[in-house]
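Hi support team,

I submitted a single chain yesterday and got back a structure, but I'm not sure I'm reading the token output correctly. Could someone confirm the output below corresponds to the sequence I sent? I've pasted both exactly as they appear in my results page.

Thanks,
R.
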Amino acid sequence: MDTIKKDLQKLFWMLGLALTLPMVLLSGPFAGYLISQWLIEKWGWVPGTTLAFVLLGLAGSVIQTVRILRLLYRRSEKKDL
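Hi R., thanks for writing in. Yes, this is the structure output for that exact sequence:
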């Protein structure tokens, strides 16, 4: 019974982390877009900054996704949670 509980706990923990990946990948570019639009409206920055900030947000999202995947991989190799 105890092993079933540990397995379910491990499964739900991994599932929760895996479900956050799409949100992490979308939030970085979206934040970059919002920041660039604010800078363009507030201080009249060049509209080309939108692409730069979206790419910076995407890079940050990819870095965070790799961290989450490494954590998932390390946890899946361990015997107990």
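A quick pointer for reading it: Residues 2-43 form the longest helix (42 residues). Let us know if anything else looks off.

Best,
Support desk
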